[in-house]
From TrEMBL:
The chain crosses the membrane at residues 17-39, 51-74, 94-114, 135-155. The keyword Endoplasmic reticulum applies. One of its GO terms (biological process) is cellular response to stress. It comes from Volvox carteri f. nagariensis. Belongs to the derlin family. InterPro entries: DER1, Rhomboid-like_sf. Its main location: endoplasmic reticulum. Keywords: Endoplasmic reticulum, Membrane, Transmembrane, Transmembrane helix. This is Derlin. Pfam families: DER1.
Length: 213
């Protein structure tokens, strides 16, 4: 019951993404599907028209285990925090951020040979959250304190200590920085907002229009 109530309390975009990620990863673990059916491959996408790969590669987070738990924790924590925080009442704008970030990462992926981009998208959310909470103090394993904008760099250093490749994390940070600049910095400089959410995305959240009205 407590888990059910917690699940229902998640905002709509976060709940949908987490559910799809869990079901996809669990489906691979149970061999209902295989990672070979869902990984990103530009040739299969554009030559064989296996368009689902543009989405499914963001939903697989590795084998069920400690690494999966670690990634899901950060996905839920920062996805939920953003949607309930700086995107409160603006789930359409939050979804547009994910679409923009996913598109940017997809364009980069063929050049760095990355087949699954879910971790990069999560890192993008961590980066944006950190930039929008500049004065929040955090602690890493109780060893040292730092402010939120340094969180992605701390996690990057931790990944390097564990022997992971930095490419996935750096891609997410780059996408996060591009979004932050175009959405938060550039409009203050120019008075223009280049990443305005399209009407088609807003149509998916009609109750938000009612609230705004």
């Amino acid at each position: 019951q407590a888990i059910e109530e917690w699940y229902k309390s998640l905002p709509i975009v976060t709940r949908t993404y987490v559910t799809m990620a869990f079901l996809t990863t669990a489906g691979c673990a149970l061999e209902i599907i295989t990672p070979f059916n869902i990984y990103f491959n530009s040739k299969l996408v554009f030559k064989k028209l296996q368009l689902w790969r543009l989405v499914t590669n963001f939903l697989f987070f590795g084998n069920l285990g400690l690494d999966f738990v670690f990634h899901m924790f950060f996905l839920i924590k920062y996805c939920k925090s953003l949607e309930e925080g700086s995107f409160r009442g603006r789930s359409a704008d939050f979804l547009w951020m994910l679409i923009f970030g996913g598109t940017l990462l997809t364009c980069i992926a063929p050049f760095v040979n990355i087949q699954f981009l879910g971790s990069s998208l999560t890192f993008m959310m961590v980066y944006v959250w950190g930039r929008r909470h500049q004065y929040v103090n955090l602690s890493f394993l109780g060893i040292f304190n730092f402010t939120a904008p340094y969180l992605p760099w701390v996690l990057l250093a931790f990944s390097l200590m564990l022997g992971s490749s930095p490419v996935v994390d750096l891609m997410g940070m780059a996408a996060g920085h591009v979004y932050y600049f175009l959405e938060d910095v550039y409009p203050r400089i120019s008075g223009r907002r280049p990443l305005k959410t399209p009407a088609l995305v807003r149509m998916m959240f009609p109750t938000e229009d009612m609230i705004v009205a």
